[in-house]
Every structure is written in C-alpha cells, then in structure tokens.
Design a protein that fits this description.
445 residues, alpha/beta, five-stranded mixed beta sheet, 16 helices, 13% strand, binds 5-phosphoarabinonic acid
C-alpha cells in the first residue's frame, strides 16, 4: 500500500501543522467528494475508477486487440493531458526503450505534442511501409498541434489503405458531442471514444485518453484501474493516518506557506521520466494561477545528481523534494567480481544494483536534508500496473486537495489560452485581424 513518509521534517517545520490544517483539509475533502468547490464541473475523475462506462471500456479492449492484430505501429496524436499520462504509463511499465524491444505488441509513436517539422517527419519515415493505426486524441477537438499532425498521418493512412481502409484504422478520442474532431469522426464513420465532460485533460489518463494506447502496449488496464479504485477507497477516508493524500497535500502546503517555491519530483528509475512530465502538468496547471503555486520540477536520479545535484545541495534554498520510491526491481543484476580489482570496486562485488541504488538514495536523502532541502518520500511499492494506478489516483487526489487548500480552482487553465490567441493572430486565423496588427507592431514587423 502506498505510503507517504516525511524525512526528518521536524527539523524544518513544527510538528503540529497537520492539526492546524485539518479543518481546511476537511473542507477541501468535502469539495472533492461532493463536488461543491470551484471547478466542480470537472471532478468526474474522483469517482471514475468505479463508475466508468463498462460498455466503452469493452470497446477500448476490443480496439486495442484489433490494433495489435493488424498494426506494427500505433501513432498517438495528442498534447498535454491528451498524451502525457499514456506516455508516462507505457514508458514506466514497458520501458523508455519500448519501441526498440522485441515484442508482440505494436510500436507506439507519440506525435502532435509540438510543432517540430523534423520530429514529425522522422516518425513518418520510421513508419515506412509498416501497417499502422492512428489514435487521435483531443478533448476540444480544435487544438492546433494535434490537428496539424493528424492531417499528415491521416493522409499517409489514406494513401496506403484508401479512404475506407484508413477509416478502419482511425480511432478518435474526443468530446461526446462537440468539436471539429467529433464532427469529422461522425462524418467519416471512425470509431470514437469519449473524454467525459466532467474530466479535464490532465485528469484523464484513466479514461479512453490513456487507456487505449496503454492497452495497445500490452499493459494490464484491469490492474491499472483496480489499483486506482483501491486508492479511491483510501482517499475517501478522513485523517492523516488513513489517507496518504492528506499527508502529502498538507506537507506541500505547509512547505509552500513557510517559503518554499519549488517542488522537485525525484525518482531513481529512468523509466519514470514521463510520469514526472505528467505530474508536472497536473500540478503546474492545477495550482499555477492567481499569482500562486509551487513550481513543479523533476529530476532523474542518480543521473541528475551529477548535473542538478550541486544546485540542490548548495544553491538558493527554494525547494523541497518529493522522492518516488519503488520496491525491488523485477530484474536483479549483481555487480561482477574482478579478480584484479583495478577499479577498487570489489567491495561491491556480489551486491545487487538495488542495494547500490538504495544506499545512494539514503545518502542523498541525508545530504539534501542537511543542505536545507526537506524531503518527502512516496513509497509506491513494486513497479506494476496496479501500484501505478494507485499512484496516479493518489497524485490526482492530492492535487485536488492541494488546489483547494491554496484557494484556487484546480480544474481550470485560463493561462493556457494566452499563447494560443497570439499564435492564431500571427498565423492569420480569420477573426484575429486586429490582434495580428497589434502583435506585429510589437514584434517590429
Ligand atoms: O489539461 C489540459 O486541459 C490540457 O493540457 C489539454 O489536455 C491540452 O491542451 C490538449 O487539449 P485537447 O485535448 O483539447 O486537445
């Protein structure tokens, strides 16, 4: 069971802060459970692990099986909340080198998450003549990056299979009724999956948004949902002992209140990299508004101890760390013995890599804490689908609580629109003519 531990936290903040925050925590809990807080139209994810649409869930599994049987690759088109969760889970459970591995499941390419011509061209080249399918994911159905990418991959599909054949290989995950993508999918007869109205992008990994690509990669989505449902039952409870989300939300709020402005998520497993990217969006978009919020950053240890480690140890005291720890590795390697011992490493011979990693973790916890960086540990258990489902729900729930403690709406993202308006104006989108002239003047054009 997931556990939150505070590492020598009493050297940083008084021990009674949990009691002090408790009344506001209860109010935040009530807002999430009963949908009575700001943004309550977007709290569908709270009960989702038990209330999801079973009919659609069956179609997700059937579509995944079809893609596995007729495609060597799946192109997943989406950005932000419409891609980071799926990529995080696939890389965490199947490997960041998933596409390079020998396997019975299709390669998965994530595109439409930027505007790099080279990156997209490379995926078009990598697909070559291989059979492939496309899962285009956009809640709004109008986001520029995925919409542009979809034009390229739809054209490649239609060229290869004809319009009707391509239609069998396009799966659109979008709003149930609105948006350009939904209209297009209905007109063309593509299979569609729904991003529920009451679930925002960054909370949507356990809907079809994440589940279809994750299932195609061969991950046991039943186990993922089971873990999330178990954590949902834990998070409904009130109390710091019973509910790890209370403990995590309380400590990060107290550290923020007493002066920390950056939270660094750390993990000693490089496969966790895109889970950290997902976490950064979740917390950054949920809390970074109204001039407040912790800045979410991430590091991969031990690699980043050799790059960011210096700053964390001795730079400006801005941050605290949240360390996600998994249990024993599925594959155990031991440090080899070398009779000559030229590198002087025989004191480690026969020791497992996990043993070396765990001593590095402990040494780092002690060093960073002594250097003035508080550390929170999230013990996530063995790295598997069930525990990852629990971890995802735990972070989502803690994020909702944290946002309400902070006094913001954790479910909107008004700031994301600012760049889009400027981009549309500068690209000459109809309706933005006045703004275009104003922006071009500022750019000196
Ligand atoms: O969390 C969010 O709401 C955003 O990150 C969106 O997921 C992202 O902007 C993509 O939006 P859409 O799914 O509408 O294309």
């Amino acid at each position: 069971m997931l556990n939150v531990k505070l590492f020598h936290m009493d050297t940083f903040i008084p021990t009674h802060y949990e009691e002090a925050i408790q009344p506001r925590m209860k109010i935040s809990q009530d807002k999430l459970q009963n949908g009575t807080g700001a943004g309550s139209d977007f709290t569908g994810w709270v009960h989702l692990p038990r209330s999801y649409d079973r009919e659609e869930y069956g179609r997700i599994k059937a579509a995944a099986a079809k893609i596995q049987s007729n495609s060597k690759a799946l192109v997943v088109i989406g950005i932000g909340g419409s891609y980071l969760g799926a990529r995080g889970v696939v890389e965490c459970l199947c490997s960041p080198n998933y596409n390079l591995k020998k396997k019975n499941t299709p390669n998965i390419y994530f595109v439409g998450n930027g505007l790099s011509s080279e990156a997209m061209g490379e995926v078009l080249d990598l697909l070559g003549d291989d059979d492939f399918s496309v899962n285009v994911i956009s809640k709004s159905g109008t986001t520029t990056e995925p919409a542009v990418a979809f034009r390229f991959f739809r054209a490649k599909l239609e060229e290869k299979y004809g319009k009707a054949g391509a239609g069998e290989r396009i799966f659109a995950t979008t709003d149930k009724a609105r948006g350009a993508l939904k209209s297009l999918a209905d007109a063309e007869g593509w299979e569609t999956f729904v991003v529920p109205d009451d679930v925002g992008g960054r909370y949507s990994v356990l809907t079809a948004v994440g589940l279809l690509p994750i299932a195609v990669a061969g991950v046991d989505i039943d186990a993922l949902m089971r873990g999330a449902a178990q954590m949902m039952d834990v998070c409904v409870q009130e109390g710091y002992e019973e509910n790890p989300a209370w403990r995590y939300a309380a400590i990060r709020h107290e550290l923020y209140r007493t002066g920390k402005s950056v939270e660094i998520l750390a993990c000693y497993d490089p496969a966790f990299r895109f889970m950290s990217e997902w976490w950064k969006q979740l917390y950054g978009e949920s809390e970074g508004k109204d001039g407040c919020g912790l800045f979410p950053a991430s590091v991969e240890f031990t690699a980043d101890l050799h790059s960011m480690g210096q700053y964390i140890q001795q730079g400006k005291r801005l941050m605290f760390e949240t360390v996600v720890r998994f249990g024993d590795s599925a594959r155990q390697l031991e440090v080899p013995r070398d009779d000559l011992d030229g590198d002087g490493l025989n004191f480690l011979a026969g020791k497992s890599m996990d043993f070396v990693r765990d001593r590095a973790t402990e040494g780092t916890l002690l060093a960073h804490t002594e250097g003035g960086v508080p550390n929170v540990i999230v013990e996530a258990g063995e790295k598997n689908a069930e525990n990852l489902g629990a971890l995802i729900y735990f972070f989502e729930y803690s994020c909702g609580l944290s946002g309400y403690l902070l006094g913001v709406n954790p479910f909107d993202q008004p700031g994301v629109e600012a760049y889009k308006k400027n981009m549309f104006a500068l690209l000459g989108k109809p309706g933005y003519e006045d703004r275009k002239a104003e922006l071009e003047a500022k750019l000196g054009k």
